[in-house]
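pls design
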């Protein structure tokens, strides 16, 4: 038996705001949605494949101090794609960690950009190579730890 990740489902506080955020930053397409009160959701796809479902079923901000999701990571082909995503993150004013593109750790060539969605869910967009010429933001710990 083998497994692979299907799609990710996130609870959000404002479906419209979150849908627009994920469309802008990741280029996802809305493949289906419901605006029915009490049952608001959106299915977001990339190249026809369901990637993310957003469910308007929560209040407040994401609680990083509680057990559960730590962060979501998305891989792209190269560092140029990471830089394009970073530009959008900055343009829309999302919370950015580590002040831009950084390696995954000391001596790593992989790296990316670390930021938050409108509800405070921590996100990463990374490339497997090309970030080795930068300094790691945290000594002795993985950058994706958001330390």
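designed seq:
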């Amino acid at each position: 038996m083998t497994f692979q990740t299907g799609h990710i489902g996130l609870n959000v506080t404002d479906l419209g705001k979150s849908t627009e955020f994920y469309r802008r930053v990741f280029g996802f397409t809305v493949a289906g949605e419901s605006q029915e009160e009490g049952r608001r959701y959106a299915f977001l796809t990339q190249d026809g494949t369901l990637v993310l479902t957003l469910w308007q079923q929560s209040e407040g901000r994401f609680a990083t101090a509680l057990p559960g999701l730590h962060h979501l990571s998305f891989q792209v082909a190269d560092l140029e794609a990471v830089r394009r995503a970073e530009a959008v993150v900055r343009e829309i004013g999302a919370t950015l960690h580590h002040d831009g593109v950084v390696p995954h750790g000391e001596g790593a060539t992989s790296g990316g950009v670390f930021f938050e969605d409108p509800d405070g869910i921590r996100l990463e967009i990374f490339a497997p190579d090309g970030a080795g010429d930068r300094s790691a933001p945290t000594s002795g710990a993985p950058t994706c730890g958001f330390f």
